[in-house]
């Protein structure tokens, strides 16, 4: 069996016109001799009736601190509605399709509600449907614990579902269909002249995704990479070839480029904690253990004699400050920040990269609040109000040069 996983995001299943395009993509796969396994997201985006954000809003209207377990039940509904509608659409078009939940598709998780980890994927039921010549339409984002609790895989997790199924079914290819024609050098909503990348390595795209390029979930990339299954990101609404994600890129376009893309992550708060400058190392371990015990994850960490600086997600900032002040620390928070990153396998060891980075920002008088770098990424923290200008300036400097 030549298995092809085809995942369709929220905008791809949001309207009858969009669903007609989805039917066409599935028909093309069948014509090429593939057995497609379809994965769908909830219909639409924030503000749309059955989108995940709308369902979360509905639950939080009833109770601001609704338990994560109950939240997972309402989030489940988005993909459930979408898969039923899409299956109906396929059946009406004469394609023998069958809707399956994440649990029915064999995705077994732990019980970390709203952000569950996958323990095992048992593709038996999907294989049974494929043997009957049916097209399974699986609810993305969903899992189930071994004892039957409903779980979800974290926001944007339908991509993860697609890769999990691709890996479990030994798929020839995983196609991620969305509303853009591939992975671009920056978010096209900010940089109008961002370019499509024809080919990119798993490593580069995972880094872009972790640093905020929402076009694919980083876990989806990692899972496909582990089994070396090629991933393609393409548009539901055109025949453009999209971006091919592969193990290593020997293409000139990839190895010769310095930077691959510019990304941004909004909704970050910077926290600065005063510590004893002689006992900084001891106090920093207390600070980070306290935050870890409260399940607050930290980023952009700087430890200096006399103070410790780091960032947290905006929604965790108040809790982090409360925990630290309760221990007697003086902690200051700087709200409304964003992380901007330049990612590229080619930046490692090249002199002048940081110089170009800082020149680009200083040209627009954008203050840098913190920096961090690795062999493939340079990131800075800026004020949220500067983020769009920073992304445009860095794109201009690194990707249009
Ligand atoms: P889906 O619902 O199909 O999963 P998403 O909204 O999760 O769609 O992802 C697609 C969106 O990702 C695009 O509309 C685009 O605005 C955004 N995006 C952010 N960064 C990038 C990038 N580097 N390349 C392409 N799209 C990007
Ligand atoms: N519907 C879920 C979300 O919005 C999962 C997904 O779309 O990938 O996070
Ligand atoms: Mg997505």
What is shown here, in short?
This protein is of the alpha/beta class.
Helix and strand layout, with pairings?
Blueprint: E1 3-8, H1 16-31, E2 35-40, H2 52-62, H3 68-92, E3 97-100, E4 107-109, E5 118-121, H4 124-131, E6 135-139, E7 142-145, E8 150-152, H5 158-168, E9 173-178, E10 199-201, H6 202-210, H7 218-226, E11 231-235, E12 243-246, H8 252-255, E13 261-274, H9 280-293, E14 299-304, E15 307-313, H10 317-326, E16 331-343, H11 353-363, E17 370-373, E18 377-383, H12 387-398
Parallel strand pairs: 1-2, 1-9, 2-6, 3-6, 4-7, 9-11, 10-12
Antiparallel strand pairs: 4-5, 7-8, 11-12, 13-15, 13-16, 14-15, 16-18, 17-18
Helix pairs in contact: 2-3, 5-7, 6-7, 11-12
Bound molecules: adenosine-5'-diphosphate (ADP), aspartic acid (ASP) and magnesium ion (MG).
Aspartic acid binds at residues 10, 41-42, 52, 78, 140-141, 155-159.
Give a verbal description of the structure.
It is globular and about 70 Å long. It has two domains: 3-179, Carbamate kinase, CATH 3.40.1160.10; 261-397, VC0802-like (2-Layer Sandwich), CATH 3.30.2130.10. The model has no long low-confidence stretch (mean pLDDT 94). The chain is α/β, with parallel strands linked by helices and 401 residues long. The chain contains twelve helices and 18 strands. The strands form three sheets. An eight-stranded mixed β-sheet has the order 3-6-2-1-9-11-12-10, with helices on both faces. A six-stranded antiparallel β-sheet has the order 14-15-13-16-18-17.
CATH architecture of the largest domain: 3-Layer(aba) Sandwich
Number of strands: 18
CATH topology of the largest domain, anyone? Carbamate kinase
Radius of gyration: 22 Å
Summarize model confidence as the mean pLDDT.
Answer: 94
Bound molecules: adenosine-5'-diphosphate, aspartic acid, magnesium ion
Indicate the low-confidence ranges by residue numbers: none
**Whole-number tally of structural domains:** 2
Number of helices: 12
Share of residues in strands: 25-35%
What is the ordering of alpha helices and beta strands?
Answer: EHEHHEEEHEEEHEEHHEEHEHEEHEHEEH
**CATH homologous superfamily designation of the largest domain:** Acetylglutamate kinase-like
Say what oligomer this is.
single chain
CATH class of the largest domain: Alpha Beta
Class from secondary-structure proportions: alpha/beta
Distance between the termini: 46 Å
What does the largest sheet look like? Answer: 8 strands, mixed
User: Helical proportion?
Assistant: 25-40%
